[in-house]
Amino acid sequence: MEDLTERRLVVVTGASSGIGLAAAVDLACRGDQVVLVGRDPARLQAAAEQVREAAGERPELFRADFAVLDDVRRLAELLRSAYDRIDVLANNAGAIVLQPITTVDGFELSIQANHLAPFLLTNLLRDRIGRMVVTASGAHRSGTLDPDDLNAPLGRYRPMNAYGTSKQANILFTAEAARRWPGIPAYSFHPGVVRTRFGNDSRLVAIGMRFLPFRSPEKGAETLVWLANQDPSRLQTGGYYADRRVRRPLPKAADPQLAARLWAASAKAVGIDA
């Protein structure tokens, strides 16, 4: 059992705003050494200042664009060089992609940024990780994941379906990671509908979101922070949580055979051994 009284190192992806930044501030104020990963250098610097003002210590920063898998590989190398152990890896980076976009790596952007990139990062850091927390979503109910065709959402593109598919992948990935790596507690969670930058660039999404019961990023981050701090003996590894309680995702996000197929397809997609 890990000693939670010692100062831990926590890496948070998607940490320059929203849930990731709120979690980083909370964890830093609790005494953890936090490392922020984000895509935009200016926003990362601003996030670092918020953490410093709240906790009194400026965090380390790493820039990476999850739309580019070579960025993820480079990030993993830098993190491995910098840290012998990552007590908590918070795979939080994610986005709703409003138009059908194919990345330089050949994948639909939602599935790459929200699933394939964190899948690759976690595998490359596996021997360093103490526990993993993955930001999933109740939006997984909109997903239509097909491991044999990860680019299927491009065919008839709907932003929420593509996003939901990637969130379904998050839950399945977490459950399969827990099965394959019993020494690394792994949890996914639904943060609630959080007011973030997601809808900023789309009038349609912004109008639709006006009618949803929004949470603050701080409220959305509560379960992430809780999962990062609870004794693993009190949690269900591989479990899907919401509001600090284990929940049952939809059957399509709780199928162990589908999870195994997704793992194999993801490993092939990012070029690692399954």
Describe this structure in words.
- An 8-stranded mixed sheet has the order 3-2-1-4-5-6-7-8, with helices on both faces.
- The two termini are 28 Å apart.
- The protein has helices at residues 18-29, 41-55, 69-82, 109-124, 159-180, 203-209, 217-229, 256-270; strands spanning 9-13, 33-38, 60-63, 86-91, 129-135, 186-190, 240-242, 245-247.
- Strand 7 and strand 8 (245-247) form a beta hairpin.
- 42% of the residues lie in helices and 14% in strands.
- With 274 residues, it is α/β, with parallel strands linked by helices.
- Residues 197-211 have low confidence and may be disordered.
- Helix 1 crosses helix 7 (217-229), helix 4 packs parallel to helix 5 (159-180) and helix 4 (109-124) crosses helix 8.
